[in-house]
Amino acid sequence: MLISINEQDYRPVYVQIVNQVKQQILEGNLKPGDELPSVRELASSLGINMHTVRRAYLVLRDQKLLVFRLGQQARVAKLRSRPAGSAEVAAVIGERLQELITEAFLLGLSRDDFRQIVDKQINMRVKES
Amino acid sequence: MKFKFIHPLWTHIPAVLALLAGMSFTLMALPLPDPAPLHFGFDGRPDKFGSPWMSTVWMAGIAILYIILSVMLDENWARQEKEKTFNWIALLDDVTVAALATVQITYVNMLASSHYTYQFPWLETLIAVVLAGGAAALLEWKRSYRRWETGFQVEDVSQVKAEVERIVKAGQPLVYWEVQSPVYSNVLAVVVPVLMVVIGATAWSEVPWLSVFIALIAIAMTLIYGGFRTLVTRENITVRMGMLGIRLLELRTADISAAGVHTFAPLKDFGGYGIRFNRNMRGYFLRGNRGVKITTNAGKNYLIGSDHAERLDAVINAVIA
After folding, report:
1. For the complex shown, is ipTM > 0.90?
2. The domain made up of B170-182+227-320 is a member of CATH 2.60.40.10
3. pTM value?
Protein backbone atom coordinates (compact mmCIF):
# COMPACT_ATOMS: atom_id res chain seq x y z
CA MET A 1 0.00 0.00 0.00
CA LEU A 2 1.38 3.37 -1.00
CA ILE A 3 0.07 6.58 0.54
CA SER A 4 1.41 10.04 -0.05
CA ILE A 5 0.19 13.46 0.97
CA ASN A 6 0.19 16.30 -1.51
CA GLU A 7 0.33 19.56 0.39
CA GLN A 8 -0.57 21.48 -2.79
CA ASP A 9 -3.81 19.52 -3.14
CA TYR A 10 -6.88 21.57 -2.17
CA ARG A 11 -8.62 18.47 -0.75
CA PRO A 12 -8.31 17.76 2.99
CA VAL A 13 -5.59 15.26 3.96
CA TYR A 14 -8.09 12.68 5.21
CA VAL A 15 -9.87 12.75 1.84
CA GLN A 16 -6.54 12.18 0.09
CA ILE A 17 -5.95 9.10 2.28
CA VAL A 18 -9.49 7.82 1.67
CA ASN A 19 -9.13 8.24 -2.10
CA GLN A 20 -5.74 6.54 -2.24
CA VAL A 21 -6.92 3.55 -0.21
CA LYS A 22 -10.00 3.23 -2.43
CA GLN A 23 -7.89 3.43 -5.57
CA GLN A 24 -5.56 0.71 -4.33
CA ILE A 25 -8.49 -1.54 -3.47
CA LEU A 26 -9.86 -1.00 -6.96
CA GLU A 27 -6.49 -1.71 -8.58
CA GLY A 28 -6.12 -4.90 -6.54
CA ASN A 29 -3.02 -3.73 -4.67
CA LEU A 30 -5.08 -4.04 -1.50
CA LYS A 31 -7.10 -7.22 -1.25
CA PRO A 32 -9.86 -8.23 1.17
CA GLY A 33 -8.27 -9.21 4.49
CA ASP A 34 -5.12 -7.13 3.93
CA GLU A 35 -3.95 -5.30 7.02
CA LEU A 36 -3.52 -1.53 7.03
CA PRO A 37 -1.00 0.35 9.17
CA SER A 38 -2.15 1.40 12.61
CA VAL A 39 -3.44 4.95 12.97
CA ARG A 40 -0.40 5.88 15.03
CA GLU A 41 2.08 4.34 12.57
CA LEU A 42 0.56 5.96 9.51
CA ALA A 43 0.22 9.34 11.22
CA SER A 44 3.79 9.43 12.47
CA SER A 45 5.18 8.19 9.13
CA LEU A 46 3.34 10.86 7.17
CA GLY A 47 3.94 13.54 9.79
CA ILE A 48 0.23 14.24 10.25
CA ASN A 49 -2.21 14.22 13.15
CA MET A 50 -3.55 10.88 14.38
CA HIS A 51 -7.10 12.23 14.26
CA THR A 52 -6.73 12.84 10.51
CA VAL A 53 -5.81 9.21 9.86
CA ARG A 54 -8.51 8.03 12.24
CA ARG A 55 -11.08 10.13 10.41
CA ALA A 56 -10.01 8.64 7.07
CA TYR A 57 -10.26 5.11 8.47
CA LEU A 58 -13.70 5.82 9.93
CA VAL A 59 -14.94 7.14 6.58
CA LEU A 60 -13.66 3.98 4.90
CA ARG A 61 -15.29 1.86 7.60
CA ASP A 62 -18.61 3.68 7.17
CA GLN A 63 -18.40 2.99 3.45
CA LYS A 64 -17.88 -0.71 4.33
CA LEU A 65 -14.42 -0.79 2.78
CA LEU A 66 -12.55 -1.41 6.04
CA VAL A 67 -13.34 -3.53 9.06
CA PHE A 68 -11.99 -3.05 12.59
CA ARG A 69 -11.90 -6.05 14.89
CA LEU A 70 -11.13 -5.91 18.58
CA GLY A 71 -7.39 -5.94 19.18
CA GLN A 72 -6.60 -6.06 15.49
CA GLN A 73 -5.58 -3.49 12.96
CA ALA A 74 -7.87 -2.20 10.26
CA ARG A 75 -8.33 -4.68 7.42
CA VAL A 76 -9.75 -4.39 3.95
CA ALA A 77 -13.34 -5.66 3.96
CA LYS A 78 -14.76 -8.19 1.55
CA LEU A 79 -15.76 -6.54 -1.69
CA ARG A 80 -19.51 -6.36 -2.25
CA SER A 81 -20.83 -9.15 -4.43
CA ARG A 82 -23.77 -7.16 -5.83
CA PRO A 83 -24.09 -3.47 -6.75
CA ALA A 84 -25.22 -1.02 -4.08
CA GLY A 85 -28.90 -0.05 -3.87
CA SER A 86 -30.18 3.22 -5.31
CA ALA A 87 -30.43 4.86 -1.87
CA GLU A 88 -26.76 4.11 -1.13
CA VAL A 89 -25.69 5.25 -4.59
CA ALA A 90 -27.56 8.51 -4.09
CA ALA A 91 -25.96 9.01 -0.67
CA VAL A 92 -22.39 8.14 -1.68
CA ILE A 93 -22.00 9.51 -5.22
CA GLY A 94 -25.17 11.42 -6.10
CA GLU A 95 -24.22 14.55 -4.21
CA ARG A 96 -20.66 14.61 -5.50
CA LEU A 97 -21.88 14.02 -9.02
CA GLN A 98 -24.16 17.03 -8.67
CA GLU A 99 -21.14 19.16 -7.72
CA LEU A 100 -19.24 17.95 -10.79
CA ILE A 101 -22.22 18.56 -13.08
CA THR A 102 -22.55 22.10 -11.73
CA GLU A 103 -18.85 22.77 -12.30
CA ALA A 104 -19.04 21.27 -15.80
CA PHE A 105 -21.97 23.49 -16.76
CA LEU A 106 -20.22 26.55 -15.28
CA LEU A 107 -17.23 25.67 -17.47
CA GLY A 108 -19.57 25.86 -20.43
CA LEU A 109 -19.76 22.14 -21.20
CA SER A 110 -22.86 20.68 -22.77
CA ARG A 111 -24.65 17.55 -21.53
CA ASP A 112 -22.94 15.46 -24.27
CA ASP A 113 -19.52 16.95 -23.51
CA PHE A 114 -19.89 15.92 -19.89
CA ARG A 115 -21.05 12.41 -20.85
CA GLN A 116 -18.05 12.05 -23.16
CA ILE A 117 -15.67 13.03 -20.35
CA VAL A 118 -17.29 10.51 -18.00
CA ASP A 119 -17.09 7.74 -20.64
CA LYS A 120 -13.47 8.55 -21.35
CA GLN A 121 -12.56 8.40 -17.65
CA ILE A 122 -14.41 5.09 -17.19
CA ASN A 123 -12.64 3.60 -20.21
CA MET A 124 -9.28 4.72 -18.85
CA ARG A 125 -10.06 3.14 -15.47
CA VAL A 126 -11.15 -0.16 -17.05
CA LYS A 127 -7.99 -0.21 -19.17
CA GLU A 128 -5.78 0.39 -16.10
CA SER A 129 -7.42 -2.33 -14.07
CA MET B 1 -3.90 -26.53 -10.23
CA LYS B 2 -3.36 -30.11 -9.14
CA PHE B 3 -1.04 -30.55 -6.17
CA LYS B 4 2.02 -32.63 -6.94
CA PHE B 5 4.81 -33.66 -4.57
CA ILE B 6 8.27 -32.68 -5.76
CA HIS B 7 10.03 -34.58 -2.98
CA PRO B 8 9.12 -38.27 -3.51
CA LEU B 9 6.99 -39.79 -0.78
CA TRP B 10 8.89 -43.08 -0.92
CA THR B 11 11.75 -41.45 0.98
CA HIS B 12 9.54 -41.85 4.08
CA ILE B 13 9.27 -45.65 3.72
CA PRO B 14 11.68 -46.40 6.65
CA ALA B 15 9.53 -44.31 8.99
CA VAL B 16 6.30 -45.96 7.82
CA LEU B 17 7.86 -49.44 8.12
CA ALA B 18 9.05 -48.66 11.66
CA LEU B 19 5.55 -47.48 12.60
CA LEU B 20 3.99 -50.62 11.09
CA ALA B 21 6.52 -52.79 12.96
CA GLY B 22 5.63 -51.16 16.27
CA MET B 23 1.89 -51.50 15.66
CA SER B 24 2.12 -55.09 14.33
CA PHE B 25 4.18 -56.24 17.30
CA THR B 26 1.60 -54.70 19.66
CA LEU B 27 -1.32 -56.38 17.85
CA MET B 28 0.45 -59.75 17.87
CA ALA B 29 0.99 -59.50 21.64
CA LEU B 30 -2.78 -59.13 22.35
CA PRO B 31 -4.36 -59.38 24.83
CA LEU B 32 -2.31 -56.90 26.87
CA PRO B 33 -2.64 -56.86 30.67
CA ASP B 34 -5.08 -54.24 31.93
CA PRO B 35 -4.16 -52.18 33.92
CA ALA B 36 -0.63 -52.04 32.55
CA PRO B 37 2.37 -50.14 33.95
CA LEU B 38 2.68 -46.80 32.17
CA HIS B 39 5.50 -45.04 33.94
CA PHE B 40 8.69 -46.34 35.50
CA GLY B 41 11.07 -44.99 38.10
CA PHE B 42 14.85 -44.81 37.73
CA ASP B 43 15.10 -48.34 39.15
CA GLY B 44 12.89 -49.62 36.29
CA ARG B 45 9.93 -50.42 38.54
CA PRO B 46 6.46 -49.17 37.60
CA ASP B 47 5.07 -46.22 39.57
CA LYS B 48 1.93 -45.52 37.51
CA PHE B 49 -0.66 -47.87 35.96
CA GLY B 50 -3.36 -47.36 33.35
CA SER B 51 -4.76 -48.57 30.03
CA PRO B 52 -2.22 -50.58 27.98
CA TRP B 53 -3.37 -48.71 24.87
CA MET B 54 -2.12 -45.40 26.24
CA SER B 55 1.47 -45.94 25.12
CA THR B 56 0.38 -47.39 21.76
CA VAL B 57 -1.86 -44.41 20.96
CA TRP B 58 0.85 -41.95 21.97
CA MET B 59 3.49 -43.80 19.97
CA ALA B 60 1.33 -43.96 16.84
CA GLY B 61 0.12 -40.37 17.23
CA ILE B 62 3.60 -38.88 17.66
CA ALA B 63 4.98 -41.06 14.84
CA ILE B 64 2.24 -39.93 12.42
CA LEU B 65 2.79 -36.28 13.42
CA TYR B 66 6.53 -36.63 12.73
CA ILE B 67 5.89 -38.24 9.36
CA ILE B 68 3.46 -35.46 8.34
CA LEU B 69 5.88 -32.78 9.58
CA SER B 70 8.74 -34.40 7.70
CA VAL B 71 6.70 -34.67 4.47
CA MET B 72 5.93 -30.95 4.73
CA LEU B 73 9.53 -29.94 5.50
CA ASP B 74 10.98 -32.14 2.74
CA GLU B 75 8.51 -30.78 0.20
CA ASN B 76 9.38 -27.24 1.24
CA TRP B 77 13.09 -28.03 0.89
CA ALA B 78 12.63 -29.65 -2.54
CA ARG B 79 10.71 -26.65 -3.84
CA GLN B 80 13.55 -24.36 -2.88
CA GLU B 81 16.30 -26.45 -4.49
CA LYS B 82 18.11 -24.94 -7.43
CA GLU B 83 20.05 -28.22 -7.85
CA LYS B 84 20.05 -31.58 -6.06
CA THR B 85 21.28 -31.21 -2.49
CA PHE B 86 21.30 -33.72 0.36
CA ASN B 87 18.51 -32.87 2.77
CA TRP B 88 19.45 -33.99 6.27
CA ILE B 89 16.01 -32.97 7.56
CA ALA B 90 14.61 -35.86 5.47
CA LEU B 91 16.02 -38.25 8.10
CA LEU B 92 14.04 -36.62 10.92
CA ASP B 93 10.92 -38.83 10.82
CA ASP B 94 12.80 -42.04 10.06
CA VAL B 95 15.12 -41.90 13.09
CA THR B 96 12.42 -40.58 15.43
CA VAL B 97 9.80 -43.17 14.45
CA ALA B 98 12.41 -45.96 14.60
CA ALA B 99 13.29 -44.92 18.16
CA LEU B 100 9.60 -44.71 19.14
CA ALA B 101 8.82 -48.12 17.61
CA THR B 102 11.79 -49.72 19.43
CA VAL B 103 10.58 -48.35 22.75
CA GLN B 104 7.05 -49.60 21.98
CA ILE B 105 8.25 -53.09 20.98
CA THR B 106 10.43 -53.51 24.08
CA TYR B 107 7.59 -52.20 26.25
CA VAL B 108 5.05 -54.64 24.80
CA ASN B 109 7.63 -57.42 25.13
CA MET B 110 7.99 -56.54 28.82
CA LEU B 111 4.17 -56.62 29.25
CA ALA B 112 3.99 -60.03 27.60
CA SER B 113 6.66 -61.39 29.94
CA SER B 114 4.57 -60.33 33.00
CA HIS B 115 7.85 -59.19 34.60
CA TYR B 116 7.15 -55.53 35.16
CA THR B 117 10.58 -53.91 35.20
CA TYR B 118 11.69 -51.75 32.33
CA GLN B 119 15.07 -50.27 31.52
CA PHE B 120 15.36 -47.93 28.58
CA PRO B 121 16.62 -49.99 25.59
CA TRP B 122 19.57 -47.78 24.63
CA LEU B 123 21.38 -50.37 22.52
CA GLU B 124 18.28 -51.55 20.63
CA THR B 125 17.22 -47.94 20.02
CA LEU B 126 20.69 -47.05 18.72
CA ILE B 127 20.66 -50.01 16.32
CA ALA B 128 17.16 -49.14 15.05
CA VAL B 129 18.07 -45.47 14.61
CA VAL B 130 21.25 -46.32 12.69
CA LEU B 131 19.39 -48.78 10.44
CA ALA B 132 16.43 -46.49 9.73
CA GLY B 133 18.69 -43.43 9.39
CA GLY B 134 20.98 -45.34 7.01
CA ALA B 135 18.06 -46.50 4.86
CA ALA B 136 16.60 -42.99 4.83
CA ALA B 137 19.96 -41.49 3.88
CA LEU B 138 20.25 -43.97 1.03
CA LEU B 139 16.76 -43.09 -0.26
CA GLU B 140 17.45 -39.36 0.08
CA TRP B 141 20.70 -39.81 -1.81
CA LYS B 142 18.96 -41.83 -4.54
CA ARG B 143 16.03 -39.49 -5.09
CA SER B 144 16.11 -37.53 -8.30
CA TYR B 145 15.97 -33.76 -8.59
CA ARG B 146 12.89 -32.13 -10.05
CA ARG B 147 12.65 -28.44 -10.60
CA TRP B 148 9.52 -26.85 -9.18
CA GLU B 149 7.66 -24.83 -11.78
CA THR B 150 6.13 -22.05 -9.73
CA GLY B 151 4.34 -20.27 -12.53
CA PHE B 152 5.77 -17.14 -10.92
CA GLN B 153 5.89 -14.02 -13.09
CA VAL B 154 7.94 -10.97 -12.35
CA GLU B 155 5.59 -8.10 -11.53
CA ASP B 156 5.60 -5.06 -13.80
CA VAL B 157 6.25 -2.20 -11.40
CA SER B 158 7.10 0.53 -13.89
CA GLN B 159 3.97 2.51 -12.94
CA VAL B 160 4.63 2.22 -9.18
CA LYS B 161 8.25 3.17 -9.73
CA ALA B 162 7.33 6.24 -11.76
CA GLU B 163 4.72 7.25 -9.18
CA VAL B 164 7.11 6.92 -6.22
CA GLU B 165 9.85 8.78 -8.08
CA ARG B 166 7.38 11.58 -8.80
CA ILE B 167 6.34 11.76 -5.13
CA VAL B 168 9.95 11.77 -3.95
CA LYS B 169 10.90 14.44 -6.49
CA ALA B 170 7.95 16.58 -5.36
CA GLY B 171 9.17 16.29 -1.76
CA GLN B 172 5.83 14.87 -0.57
CA PRO B 173 5.67 12.60 2.47
CA LEU B 174 4.99 8.98 1.57
CA VAL B 175 4.40 5.65 3.24
CA TYR B 176 4.75 2.26 1.62
CA TRP B 177 3.34 -0.60 3.66
CA GLU B 178 3.57 -4.36 3.25
CA VAL B 179 2.62 -7.30 5.45
CA GLN B 180 3.72 -10.92 5.61
CA SER B 181 1.18 -12.67 7.79
CA PRO B 182 0.93 -16.37 6.96
CA VAL B 183 -1.59 -18.64 8.68
CA TYR B 184 0.99 -20.23 10.98
CA SER B 185 1.96 -16.86 12.47
CA ASN B 186 -1.70 -16.28 13.37
CA VAL B 187 -1.91 -19.81 14.81
CA LEU B 188 1.06 -18.95 17.04
CA ALA B 189 -0.50 -15.64 18.04
CA VAL B 190 -4.10 -16.78 18.55
CA VAL B 191 -4.84 -20.53 18.45
CA VAL B 192 -1.89 -21.75 20.54
CA PRO B 193 -2.42 -19.13 23.31
CA VAL B 194 -6.15 -20.01 23.47
CA LEU B 195 -5.27 -23.71 23.79
CA MET B 196 -2.71 -22.85 26.47
CA VAL B 197 -5.29 -20.91 28.47
CA VAL B 198 -7.76 -23.83 28.24
CA ILE B 199 -5.09 -26.32 29.35
CA GLY B 200 -3.93 -23.92 32.08
CA ALA B 201 -7.49 -23.56 33.38
CA THR B 202 -7.73 -27.32 33.93
CA ALA B 203 -4.72 -27.16 36.25
CA TRP B 204 -6.17 -24.24 38.29
CA SER B 205 -7.61 -26.37 41.13
CA GLU B 206 -4.37 -28.32 41.69
CA VAL B 207 -1.51 -26.01 40.69
CA PRO B 208 -2.82 -22.41 40.48
CA TRP B 209 0.62 -20.86 39.97
CA LEU B 210 1.08 -23.03 36.86
CA SER B 211 -2.24 -21.79 35.44
CA VAL B 212 -1.18 -18.17 35.99
CA PHE B 213 2.24 -18.86 34.47
CA ILE B 214 0.68 -20.50 31.37
CA ALA B 215 -1.82 -17.63 31.02
CA LEU B 216 0.99 -15.05 31.18
CA ILE B 217 2.96 -16.87 28.48
CA ALA B 218 -0.22 -17.10 26.36
CA ILE B 219 -0.81 -13.34 26.70
CA ALA B 220 2.84 -12.63 25.83
CA MET B 221 2.56 -14.86 22.74
CA THR B 222 -0.57 -13.05 21.57
CA LEU B 223 1.12 -9.68 22.00
CA ILE B 224 4.49 -10.61 20.54
CA TYR B 225 3.77 -13.05 17.72
CA GLY B 226 2.06 -12.21 14.45
CA GLY B 227 2.94 -11.06 10.99
CA PHE B 228 5.90 -8.94 9.91
CA ARG B 229 5.08 -5.43 8.72
CA THR B 230 7.46 -3.51 6.51
CA LEU B 231 7.06 0.23 6.38
CA VAL B 232 9.05 2.48 4.06
CA THR B 233 9.09 6.24 4.41
CA ARG B 234 11.43 8.82 2.96
CA GLU B 235 13.51 8.65 6.15
CA ASN B 236 13.34 5.05 7.37
CA ILE B 237 12.70 1.43 6.53
CA THR B 238 11.15 -0.36 9.49
CA VAL B 239 10.16 -3.98 10.09
CA ARG B 240 7.76 -4.59 12.98
CA MET B 241 6.18 -7.70 14.41
CA GLY B 242 2.98 -8.68 16.19
CA MET B 243 0.18 -6.79 17.86
CA LEU B 244 2.57 -4.62 19.86
CA GLY B 245 4.49 -3.71 16.72
CA ILE B 246 7.83 -4.66 18.21
CA ARG B 247 10.52 -3.05 16.09
CA LEU B 248 12.78 -5.72 14.60
CA LEU B 249 14.71 -3.55 12.18
CA GLU B 250 15.05 0.14 11.51
CA LEU B 251 17.35 1.49 8.83
CA ARG B 252 17.76 5.11 7.89
CA THR B 253 17.42 5.49 4.14
CA ALA B 254 20.44 7.81 4.20
CA ASP B 255 22.54 4.89 5.50
CA ILE B 256 21.60 2.54 2.64
CA SER B 257 24.03 2.15 -0.22
CA ALA B 258 22.22 -0.45 -2.34
CA ALA B 259 19.02 -2.50 -2.56
CA GLY B 260 17.93 -5.22 -4.95
CA VAL B 261 15.54 -8.13 -5.35
CA HIS B 262 16.99 -11.31 -3.84
CA THR B 263 15.83 -14.90 -4.29
CA PHE B 264 16.83 -17.30 -1.53
CA ALA B 265 16.13 -20.75 -0.07
CA PRO B 266 14.76 -20.18 3.46
CA LEU B 267 15.52 -23.68 4.77
CA LYS B 268 18.90 -24.11 3.12
CA ASP B 269 20.22 -20.55 3.42
CA PHE B 270 18.74 -19.64 6.81
CA GLY B 271 17.48 -22.88 8.36
CA GLY B 272 13.84 -21.77 8.46
CA TYR B 273 11.60 -18.71 8.59
CA GLY B 274 11.32 -15.77 10.96
CA ILE B 275 14.19 -13.61 12.18
CA ARG B 276 17.19 -15.39 10.73
CA PHE B 277 20.92 -14.95 10.46
CA ASN B 278 23.57 -16.43 8.22
CA ARG B 279 27.16 -15.48 7.49
CA ASN B 280 26.20 -12.87 4.92
CA MET B 281 23.06 -11.23 6.18
CA ARG B 282 20.24 -10.91 8.66
CA GLY B 283 16.82 -11.90 7.31
CA TYR B 284 13.21 -11.09 8.22
CA PHE B 285 10.70 -13.24 6.38
CA LEU B 286 7.74 -15.48 7.18
CA ARG B 287 6.98 -17.01 3.79
CA GLY B 288 8.12 -17.25 0.19
CA ASN B 289 11.64 -17.18 -1.13
CA ARG B 290 11.92 -13.64 -2.40
CA GLY B 291 12.70 -10.34 -0.80
CA VAL B 292 14.83 -7.23 -0.99
CA LYS B 293 18.46 -7.35 0.05
CA ILE B 294 19.64 -4.08 1.53
CA THR B 295 23.28 -3.14 1.93
CA THR B 296 24.20 -0.32 4.28
CA ASN B 297 27.09 2.11 3.94
CA ALA B 298 28.75 0.16 6.77
CA GLY B 299 28.68 -2.97 4.58
CA LYS B 300 25.99 -4.83 6.54
CA ASN B 301 23.38 -6.82 4.62
CA TYR B 302 19.71 -7.21 5.54
CA LEU B 303 17.03 -9.22 3.79
CA ILE B 304 13.38 -8.20 4.04
CA GLY B 305 11.02 -10.91 2.78
CA SER B 306 8.25 -9.68 0.52
CA ASP B 307 5.26 -10.98 -1.40
CA HIS B 308 5.84 -8.14 -3.87
CA ALA B 309 9.62 -7.97 -4.02
CA GLU B 310 9.82 -5.91 -7.22
CA ARG B 311 7.41 -3.32 -5.83
CA LEU B 312 9.25 -3.07 -2.49
CA ASP B 313 12.56 -2.82 -4.35
CA ALA B 314 11.22 -0.05 -6.60
CA VAL B 315 10.00 1.96 -3.58
CA ILE B 316 13.23 1.50 -1.61
CA ASN B 317 15.40 2.44 -4.59
CA ALA B 318 13.28 5.53 -5.19
CA VAL B 319 13.60 6.75 -1.58
CA ILE B 320 17.36 6.08 -1.34
CA ALA B 321 18.12 7.71 -4.68
Report:
1. no
2. no
3. 0.72
